[in-house]
Amino acid sequence: MSKEERRRYISTIKTASTDQRFRGDYENLINMHQRLFSGPIHQPQQFLPWHRWYILQYENLLRRVDCKFTVAFWDWSLDADPWGASNELELWHSGDSGFGGNGAGGCVRDGPFRQGVWSAVSLNGRKCLTRQFRGTPPDSAAVQEVIIQNSFETFESELRINLHDQVHCLIGGTMCTTESASPPEFFLHHGFIDKIWNDRQKRTRNHAWQQVSLMGSGGVQATAVTDLSQQPGGVRVEYEASSRETRIMGRLQGKSIAQLHETKRKPFTNLLGASLRLFHVSTEEAKKAKENEKILQPVNAG
């Protein structure tokens, strides 16, 4: 997004979360995630379709503020310095076109979502937004390895645990709690997770979702959201890749998992115990995730 587009995006979020016309619905939507956190929404059967549905509910709400609003995504796999804040176009910049930076003593102290200016939604009342940046997210080669997995079960597990759960706790603070839907970066992160699923769907649709009602959706079936071109309410979603992503992924596409594994690149942070605990990853799944991580990490560290 351009600097002006970011300002508009941030302004829409702040209006939805503070204006009395929207605040109640906004808080109910955010708190829904916390209420359901420890249930099926973070398990294989519902994780992907539920969060796709949830992103749509968020977008629909914010469109009541600005009819042109669409949920953006943050491709953390492309950032050499994922926590950079010096440039106006960097996500964590402290100006009005950024989301603010790391927490100082916990609470975020700069940017439009800083303490005293904006507060995070919680079932226990409003509180300051916190962050605790640490480590490095998985890179674009690791993301590509996940996308091209032959087994859907392995793809889903790696996307959910090795990518999704991990980045939540690399950002840290509120994002690494059951209140994780409250930070504005939650939907940027989940937009990218959903894009990765869509990139996989473009390659193959060899997985049929069971007829399961999505938690809290009023009876919406998982199958109703699997096709981004036909979302509930007649919505069509298309993720637009940046020129940088197109260039980098163009070099990676066509390579096998073994070739990607052998690509010389920098290692990223190993799975955090905090993320495994937060998302109640079973002992069996954690063991599998750590085995998968050995393949996702580069064998030739650059």
TrEMBL record:
It comes from the Eukaryota. The keyword Cytoplasm does not apply. One of its GO terms (molecular function) is oxidoreductase activity. It holds the Pfam family Tyrosinase. InterPro entries: Di-copper_centre_dom_sf, Tyrosinase/Hemocyanin, Tyrosinase_Cu-bd. The keyword Metal-binding applies. Residues 25-202 form the Tyrosinase copper-binding domain. Signal peptide: none annotated. PANTHER family: TYROSINASE FAMILY MEMBER, TYROSINASE-LIKE PROTEIN TYR-1-RELATED. This is Tyrosinase.
